[in-house]
Recover the amino acids of this structure.
């Protein structure tokens, strides 16, 4: 072996050794998450609503699982489009996350010209964490104690009654639209009044300015328990233990009707796989923990975990369902 060959061999050995030394370091850097930097969960809705309530419950459990500060940042506006677009543009470093409900899948179908993001391509789904049936309630002055009685009443006097919803494209909006279609009310011209949040919608429902509404347990149950509203049905497949005497819409004679709001957590697209797996695992442990399940059950939700892959499939299937409801009900932005 010549001297030059010996030098090249020696250098190649040094390079190989350096590569072997650097590989674990690079891998460690890639998986060294989280650091001391706080994790922020952006909620594109105002504080106090159903989405915010579930998000804060999850943040508390994630903080315990990751031993890291996890904070909720409410960024409401434009039915959630503003906060959602902010996360879509954020760095995929695992420190900016996004929490939303089923409106994540519905909004792009409704706000086509205004949406600045793709709900599938611009996000990394981490996991679904909960679902909840809606309470179908009426103002106590409405002379209807069942869904069928309300249906008959509205059919006989379509100009006299209106439905409230907490927002355009919300679960309550699409739930009412689906019900109206199945009840033969879609072509009656019954107003669906759109509010900016559950609080003003419930206030007008209690006051009698509107007459019926589908809304999550979190915001409607206290009004029902307080006698300010009358629950005539709930939209899940089975009765909730929180309202054991209130039948489901299915029991009321609409055998194909079942509607849930669902909640999940995402990160921006291209989240590194090690970070995704760490977040997915922490989310699963959080959702399956007794404190999380107990807290959600008390708010009228079920803790339901779907991993990243299954959640993505679920979003796609729900999007197709919402598209059908929107087309059948001819829901458009005015």
């Amino acid at each position: 072996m010549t001297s030059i060959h010996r030098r090249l061999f020696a250098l190649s050995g040094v390079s190989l050794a350096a590569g072997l030394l650097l590989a674990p370091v690079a891998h460690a850097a890639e998986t060294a998450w989280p650091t001391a930097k706080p994790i922020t969960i952006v909620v594109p809705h105002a504080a106090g609503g159903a989405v915010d309530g579930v998000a804060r419950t999850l943040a508390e459990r994630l903080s315990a699982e990751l031993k890291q500060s996890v904070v909720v940042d409410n960024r409401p506006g434009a039915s959630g489009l503003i906060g959602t677009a902010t996360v879509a543009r954020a760095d995929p470093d695992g420190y900016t996350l996004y929490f939303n409900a089923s409106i994540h899948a519905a909004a792009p179908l409704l706000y086509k010209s205004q949406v600045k993001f793709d709900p599938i391509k611009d996000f990394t789904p981490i996991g679904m964490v909960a679902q909840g049936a809606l309470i179908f309630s009426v103002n106590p002055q409405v002379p209807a104690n069942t869904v069928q009685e309300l249906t008959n009443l509205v059919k006989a006097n379509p100009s006299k009654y209106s439905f409230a919803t907490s927002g355009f494209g919300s679960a309550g909006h699409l739930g009412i639209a689906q019900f109206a279609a199945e009840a033969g009310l879609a072509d009656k011209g019954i107003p669906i009044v759109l509010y900016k949040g559950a609080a003003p919608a419930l206030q007008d429902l209690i006051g009698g300015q509107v007459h019926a509404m589908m809304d999550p347990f979190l915001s409607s149950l206290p009004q029902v328990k307080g006698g300010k509203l009358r629950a005539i049905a709930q939209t899940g497949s089975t009765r909730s233990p929180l309202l054991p005497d209130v039948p489901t819409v299915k029991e009321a004679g609409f055998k194909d009707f079942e509607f849930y709001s669902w909640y999940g957590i995402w990160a921006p697209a291209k989240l590194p796989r090690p970070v995704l797996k760490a977040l997915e695992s922490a989310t699963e442990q959080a959702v399956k923990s007794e404190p999380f399940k107990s807290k959600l059950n008390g708010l009228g939700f079920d803790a339901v975990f779907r991993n990243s892959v299954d959640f993505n499939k679920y979003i796609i299937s729900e999007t197709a369902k919402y598209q059908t409801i929107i087309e059948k009900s001819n829901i458009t932005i005015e």
Residues 134 and 216 are 4 Å apart (CA to CA). The beta strands are 39-43, 70-74, 96-101, 123-138, 163-165, 192-194, 212-216, 230-234, 260-268, 302-306.
